[in-house]
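Phosphoribosyl-AMP cyclohydrolase: structure tokens wanted.
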Amino acid sequence: MPFDPESLTYDANGLIPAIAQDFHTGEVLMMAWMNAQSIMKTLEDGHVTYWSRSRKALWAKGETSGHLQHLREMRIDCDRDCLLLLVDQKGPACHTNRRSCFYTALRDGDEVEILRPVED
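Answer:
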């Protein structure tokens, strides 16, 4: 059955959360927002494009940093209101220069940094 991005459930702003996961390791890298246009662009060219809520524009991951995400597979959750992007990540995924945006753990009520920035 052909995919129709309109079959997804978007929020009031026309956005859907997208979780990027490393295709090879399963590590969760980041969460960002997509709209129908960014989904179609990602599927067309294989490079992950998100929707920037602050800039109100398409945002090609790694466009300025070089830390590209190549889409290996896109999955839709059972409620059709969240996407899982299995990607090949080039360089750090996080704007803080860490491999993953999920670098702070809560342990015994304390925040603990578990990933350090990647050194160039």
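The domain at 5-113 is CATH 3.10.20.810 (Ubiquitin-like (UB roll)). The chain has a mean pLDDT of 95.

Cheers.
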